[in-house]
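Lab channel / #folding
Pinned by the channel admin:
"Please post every new chain as: sequence first, then the structure tokens as a reply. Keep commentary short and put observations after the output so the thread stays searchable."

First post following the new format, from NK:
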Amino acid sequence: MIAIATLLWQPNEHSHSFSAVYDARWVEKLYRGVKRNLTQPFEFICYTDRDYMFQEPIKQLRIFGTPSYATCIQPYSLNRRMILMGLDTVITGNIDHLVDATKLIAAVGLPRDPYHPSRACNGVALVPAGRAFIAYGHNGENDMEWMRAQQHFMLDDVWPGQIVSYKGHVKEHGLGDARIVYFHGMEKPHELDEEWIVNNWI
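Reply from TO:
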């Protein structure tokens, strides 16, 4: 069974201001987005810094130590097929084929950085089984740079226009055939009243 993984922690000295908005409701909206757009069984796992009272069937695993953005590497320790997403992600279409791909790929799939397309970013990750070494070899390095150093392929090259950045793609070019829209930095879903967000981020 595929794991859908994300993380939630209370803001601390490592957090940027735009991360202060996340709470249990964001986790549940991401869960429901996956549930609406995936016909296969999945386990939704949220790495947390404390116990949260989720209304949806979300499994909680505890974050090791003081959370920071580098903590986003911890879910690789699951060592199983996984799609890893941030809370500021909106699922906008069927993702069955992306789940199926995690059975076949030989490396982690990452999006192209929307501002520097020659390199990857880690807004979303498609992860095959057997990648625990990514977590256990990590010593607190910047999570983005750590993932760029791992063997990976570019999601954009296999599924163009389906896993996209809001600021780098959707804001200027529209939603198109997007299935997963990831946000980064300023401008989050709760600040926007675009119809596709209203219909999908619920």
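NK: The chain has one domain: 2-88+98-157.
TO: also worth noting, The chain is about 25% helix and 20% strand.
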